[in-house]
Amino acid sequence: MVKFTDLIHHKRKDLRLGALVGIYTIIKYNEVAIPILLNTINEIFKALVNFELQEDVFIVCALEILIFIGPTETTLNQINILVSLLNEDSLQTLYPKIFSSIY
Length: 103
Fold this sequence. Notes:
Layout: H1 2-7, H2 13-29, H3 34-49, H4 56-69, H5 73-77, H6 79-86, H7 95-102
C-alpha cells in the first residue's frame, strides 16, 4: 500500500493511475490500518491540489477511492480542494462523485 501511495506523485501518468488502481484493489479486498488509510487520503489530496495537471481518469479514480473509504475528518479538512474541483466547469460531469466523496 505504501509503495502505491508513493507512486501517486510519479512523473509518469500510467504509474500514477496504476497506483490508484492498486490502492483501490487493496482497500476493497483487505483490511487496511487507519493510519495508512489516512496517509493515503492525504497523498490523494496532495495530487488533487494541482488537478489541472492530472487527467480526468486520474481524478475519477481518486474520487472513487475517497468514496469507497467514506467521509473522514481528513476528507473534511481538505474540502477546499473538493470545492476547487466543483469550481472547474470542465469537471461538471464529476460533480456527483465529488459530492459523494464528502457524504
